[in-house]
Design brief:
This protein is an alpha/beta fold and about 350 residues long. The chain is built from 13 helices and eight strands. The chain has a five-stranded parallel sheet with strand order 1-2-3-4-5. A three-stranded antiparallel sheet has the order 6-7-8. Bound molecules: iron/sulfur cluster (2 copies).
Length: about 350
């Protein structure tokens, strides 16, 4: 289902959309706080309005519906159809933990280009009355019938699960800046949510988490507004370019390990359990940052940036229709391999 490319827009390789905030699983340190989020389903009208506005100035290679668990949204097929009508992305996919696949109407599978299924250790499926093998089987049957691209992501007990956030602010600005600069989510996990564009999920959910955890009410900011770009105000193109190119960490980064957290054992923990715990453990940066992973990511980010700059030199010569200024300004923020 590849669609015609349109240039003269900001071009990104990937954007994700959270069709539901909550999830059937409750993975501790879920980067989207889905284990501790109250149930909330995205509204089709809001998505439609936001995407139409964004599509005027941006085009993406792939749009992925995720969450939370996107299959908790009964209107998920309508969301996909809207994205197709708007012609926002070349490919459209969905990422699920697979638990609800057995209940999904087949129309969904006829609408997607690819399906990602995250698989967890067997213990995660306890009490859900589902076998991990049956998730794999259903996905493969649907793939055979509807010919979408299928990929499983295996999450083992320790790897590749990492701590995502901390409970108290990191009072070390240079370190926050390093974590942000090395954070692959800041470059790859952009999203839109209730009228705003974000670099990651943290600003959307952090305030709710901190308030609910009742650790400290001091310095809790309105990250949803401060760390995002409002979509329905004038001059979106230039405001978004400035945001994408900024090397200043988000305010939410003060509580975040980005993609440099230590490996951890996946376990299921709800907000109720976290709050009820008599020996509530406060997650601190000193305990949870993987400094060698941070150094490795910093090195990779630097190599990727020089490679992108090199490619840009070639691209500038061959892509006459591209908004070159926008490309140059966004270099380093995305993979240009796809051109
Ligand atoms: S399966 Fe786990 S990691 Fe994925 S959205 Fe649900 S709670 Fe988060
Ligand atoms: S809050 Fe900052 S460090 Fe954390 S995922 Fe977002 S951009 Fe990365």
């Amino acid at each position: 289902m590849l669609q015609k490319r349109s240039f003269k827009k900001i071009y990104k390789n990937y954007l994700e959309f959270f069709a539901a905030d909550h999830c059937v699983l409750k993975c501790w340190q879920c980067a989207n706080f889905s284990n501790v989020n109250y149930p909330k389903i995205a509204k089709l009208a809001t998505f439609c309005k936001d995407l139409k506005t964004l599509a005027k100035i941006m085009h993406v290679e792939t749009l992925r519906f995720c969450g939370g668990e996107p299959l908790l949204n009964n209107e998920i097929v309508k969301f996909i159809k809207v994205a197709r009508e708007i012609n926002f992305a070349y490919t459209i996919g969905l990422c699920t933990n697979g638990i609800l696949l057995k209940d999904v109407d087949d129309e969904l599978f006829s609408q997607i280009d690819y399906l990602n299924v995250s698989l967890y250790p067997l213990s995660n499926y306890r009490n859900l009355k589902i076998e991990r093998d049956s998730i794999i089987k259903i996905a493969k049957i649907k793939r055979k019938k509807y010919k979408f691209f299928l990929k499983f992501f295996e999450f083992y007990c320790f790897k590749p699960w990492r701590y995502s956030y901390v409970d108290l602010p990191i009072n070390n600005s240079p370190l926050v800046k390093r974590i942000y600069a090395a954070c692959s989510r800041a470059k790859n996990c952009h999203t839109i949510y209730d009228g705003y564009y974000y670099k990651c999920a943290m600003p959307i959910y952090l305030r709710r988490y901190l308030i609910n955890m009742q650790i400290s009410s001091k310095n809790i900011l309105n990250y949803e507004k401060i760390d995002g770009v409002p979509l329905h105000q004038p001059d979106l193109y230039n405001r978004l370019i400035t945001y994408l190119n900024s090397d200043v960490p988000l305010k939410a980064c003060n509580y975040c390990l980005g993609t440099s957290g230590k490996n951890m054992r996946i376990k299921q923990v709800s907000m109720k359990e976290l709050k009820d715990s008599k020996t509530k453990k406060i997650n601190m940066i000193e305990d949870l940052l993987d400094i060698s992973k941070l150094r490795e990511s910093e090195k990779n980010a630097s190599v990727a940036r020089s490679r992108s700059l090199k490619q840009m030199g070639i691209l500038k010569k061959i892509n006459k229709g591209i908004d070159k200024d926008a490309l140059i300004r966004t270099v380093g923020l995305r993979d240009v391999d796809s051109f």
